[in-house]
Amino acid sequence: MTRITSLIVRKDDLSQRKLTTHDAPPLAPGEALAKVDRFAFTANNVTYGVVGERIGYWKFFPTAEDGWGIIPVWGFADIVESNAPDVRVGERLYGYWPMASHLVLSPAKVKETRLTDGAAHRAELPPVYNAYARVSNDADYDPSMDDERMTLHPLYATSYCLYDFSKDNGWFGATQAIIPSASSKTAIGVAYAFRADPQSPRIVGVTSLRNAAAVRALGLYDDVIVYDDMDSRIDAAAPALIIDMSGSGPVIGRLHKLLGDNMRYTSNVGITHYDAGGMGVDFIRERSAMFFAPGHIQKRAADWGPGVFERKAFEFWRDSALKSREWLAIRRETGADAVERAFADVYGGCTAANAAWVVGF
Ligand SMILES: NC(=O)c1ccc[n+]([C@@H]2O[C@H](COP(=O)([O-])OP(=O)(O)OC[C@H]3O[C@@H](n4cnc5c(N)ncnc54)[C@H](OP(=O)(O)O)[C@@H]3O)[C@@H](O)[C@H]2O)c1
Question: How far apart are CA 128 and CA 148, in angstroms?
C-alpha cells in the first residue's frame, strides 16, 4: 500500500504547518497515481497561500482537515500506477502538483504531449493549471533543464505575459518601467524581456538593501534603487509604468504619491512583502489593476489561436533560463524535512535573491 505524505498549512496562518500521511486510495477506473519527483519552491508558492481564499488556490488539492490546505507547486512526477487507458506506468509529467509525495489524477483530453486532470473539483479552475506536459513523449524535452523548468518556467512565462501586455498597451505611454521587488525571479524575467526589446521603456528596479548588490550585478536594470531611497532617486517627472511584485502598501503608496499624474498604470502582480499588504490613501486605484497570467494566456489563445502564445513564452523561458545559469544557484534537497525547510526559508524571507529551492519528499 502506498502512503501519501503531504505538507499542509493553516489557510489563515501560513506559519502553522504540519506533515500528514494517509494510504493512497485504490485507483478507480480511469485514474492514475503520480509520484511527485521534485518541485520548486519560491515566493510565488507562498503567495498562492496568501491569496488562496481570494483566488481559489486552495481548491486544487483539498485536504480532509478543516481550515488547512495544500499549497500548489510546479514540478515533475512519474506515473507509478495506472487505470487510465492511454497513460502508461513510467511516463513523466510536468505541471502543477500538491506539496505531497503523490497525486491521484483523472487523466482527460489525453493528447500525445499533453493531458488534463479531469477531476471534478478542478473543472472550474483555470485550464493553465490543470494541463500537464507529457514530457516523455516530447522530442524537445531536455531533462538537463528540469530544475530551471520547475523554478523559472512559471515565473518567466508570467514575465513574458507582462512584457506582452505592456507592449500591447503602448507601454501605457511610459518612458520608465519601475519594478518593486526587483530581485524576485518574476521581476528579473521582466527585465530580460524589456531589455531585449529596443522599443521598451527604461527599467528601474526597486529592491531591499540586502538584495541591491545582487540585483545590480545582474546588469539588467537601467537603474537599481533601494526602497529607502525612492523619494530622492525616482524620476517623478517621467511618465511611469509600475510592474509591482511586492504588494507592499507603503512602497506603492509612496511611488503613487511621488509620481502623481505621471503614474500611468500599475500592474499588481505579486505579494512578496506578505506582511505589508493593504494599499493606503495614496494608492491610485483607478489606474491600477491586478495581473493574472493565466487570464492573459487565455486572452492570447483567443487572439492568436491555441498554443501560439505558449510556444513564444516557452522559447523566452528557455533562452532566459540559460542566461540565468550565470547567477542562479539551485539548492536541491530531498525528504520531508527538506520540504519543510524550503517553506520556512522562503516564507521567512531568508532565501538569497540568487538562489532557489528544488525539493521532493
Ligand atoms: N499574478 C501572477 O499571475 C503571478 C505569476 C507569477 C508570479 N507572481 C508573483 O510574483 C511574485 C514574485 O515571485 P517569485 O517566485 O519570482 O519570487 P522570488 O524569486 O522567490 O523572490 C523573492 C523576493 O521577494 C522579496 N521577499 C521575499 N520574502 C520576503 C519577506 N519575507 N519580506 C519582504 N520581502 C520578501 C525579496 O525581494 P526584494 O528584496 O527585492 O523586495 C526576495 O528577493 C510573487 O508574489 C508571485 O506570486 C504573480
Answer: 19
| 20 close to 1: Cβ distance less than 8 angstroms | no
Q: What is the pLDDT of residues 213-247, one digit of tens each?
A: 999 999 999 999 999 999 999 999 999 999 999 99
Please name the residue whose Cα sits nearest to atom 5 of ligand 1: 158
For 237, the grid coordinates are: 517627472
Q: Are 68 and 114 in contact (CB under 8 A)?
A: no
Name all residues whose Cβ lies below 6 A of ligand 1. Answer: 42-44, 47, 155, 158, 181-186, 207-208, 211, 245-246, 269-274, 291-293, 349, 353
Which pLDDT belongs to residue 306? 84
What is the homologous superfamily of the domain 155-294 according to CATH? NAD(P)-binding Rossmann-like Domain (3.40.50.720)
Q: Atom 29 in ligand 1: which residue has the minimum CA distance?
A: 349
Average confidence (pLDDT) over 261-281: 91
Q: Say whether domain 3-141+328-360 belongs to CATH 3.40.50.2300.
A: no
Count of all residues that appear for the chain in the document: 361
Locate CATH 3.40.50.720 in the chain.
155-294
Q: Which atom of ligand 1 is nearest to the CA of 294?
A: 3
